[in-house]
Task: structure prediction
Amino acid sequence: MRFIVELEPPYSLDYSMSPSFVSSLYVKVKPGEWIKIAGLGGGSLKFRQVAPDKVMVEYISDAPKAEVEEQAMLELGAWHPPFEDFIHQLPSELRWAAESLSRIYPGVRLPIAPHDFNYVFISVSLSR
Result:
């Protein structure tokens, strides 16, 4: 099954996955392309950024589309609105730092993998 997830721009798959512990479940094949190798959908799930606000999701399984879409939204970080939308709410003494980071790393989201809690927990524990 293939489908496109449209995200609120800006969005960057690489900037979102790279610092995330969820990335321990994936292999970065090339810029903008990640394949899941462990956990739910390991070996069957692939993300490829095809436009600044679009990610192609490929899933080789007979899982219901609704479940795959939910998993993709969580693991892409699409469950949360862009952090840039909240910078104006920060105290002025912190706002400059958040604005600088958002210019350097636009489109960062927070990928989560609640279906793979044990795998992510192990990754976090080993990182200590």
Notes: The mean pLDDT is 95.
